[in-house]
Write a structure and sequence with these properties.
It contains eight helices and six strands, in the order H-E-H-E-H-E-H-H-E-H-E-H-E-H. By secondary structure, the protein is an alpha/beta fold. The protein folds into two domains: 3-167, Rossmann fold; 168-219. Strand 2 (49-54), helix 3 and strand 3 form a beta-alpha-beta unit. The longest helix has 49 residues, at 170-218. It is elongated, with a radius of gyration of 28 Å. The relative contact order is 0.13.
Length: 219
């Protein structure tokens, strides 16, 4: 094969172009050495690297729009995804709702996303940013303070802060689900309790009627 064709194929692979033979596993990185090799290849190709990070629990339209906007800032979008242990440590024992393997796969299927990287609990703070040293780091307003952004700028060319891309977050959706479920349980228990009370009263009235009937016959 001609060298220019080889170079083209390498570029397509590095950019995560979707073909029948490209599976999400090919774009999922779980080890620092895998990330390091990829970044060296991308740098040799002269690609502008964009990095963003998050939990991405219950992937929704806001996540898709966010990744789409992040991709506009460079050639290759890498998404760091918090591991299950990391999410539990930060958000509590009931999160994440969707396990890390599924979250990684769902993100890898999004067209703007070129690579996903698992962020393990216990890894040094900001280790992925320091390892990749992206051209652009994309975050939401809630992610970093202004002082933190200034600190992180030493590891990337610039930091881009995006507004939320959906009217509700995953946490808000979960709260709505919990409230809805609680209401259903309350309604069900209320209805059953009402029926039980009515049945008990009817039974008591029946017993009293039977008692009065027997007393009348005795007289």
């Amino acid at each position: 094969m001609h060298s220019s064709n080889i170079e083209l194929l390498q570029s397509l692979w590095l950019l995560g172009v979707y073909t029948a033979r490209v599976h999400f596993q090919d774009r999922t990185l779980t080890k620092p050495d895998q990330v390091n090799r990829l970044i060296k290849q991308l740098r040799r190709q002269g690609r502008q690297i964009v990095l963003t990070q998050g939990t991405f629990d219950m992937v929704h339209i806001g996540h898709a729009r966010y990744c789409q906007e992040a991709k506009r800032h460079g050639d290759v979008l890498i998404v760091g995804v918090d591991s299950d242990d990391k999410v539990r440590r930060r958000k509590g024992p009931d999160r994440p709702v969707v396990p890390q393997a599924e979250r990684l796969e769902m993100l890898a299927y999004l067209k703007p996303v070129d690579y996903v990287v698992l962020k393990e609990q216990g890894a040094p703070k900001h280790s992925l940013i320091k390892l990749i040293r992206p051209d652009v780091l994309v975050a939401t307003k809630e992610t970093y303070t202004s002082d933190k952004i200034k600190y992180l700028e030493q590891f990337c060319i610039k930091v881009v802060v995006l507004d939320p891309m959906a009217t509700t977050s995953t946490s808000a959706k979960l709260r709505m689900m919990q409230i809805g479920m609680a209401q259903k349980i309350s309604d069900t228990l209320s209805n059953r309790l009402t029926r039980s009370i009515e049945e008990a009263l009817a039974e008591l009235r029946g017993e009293r009627g039977e008692h009065h009937g027997k007393a009348g016959k005795a007289r």
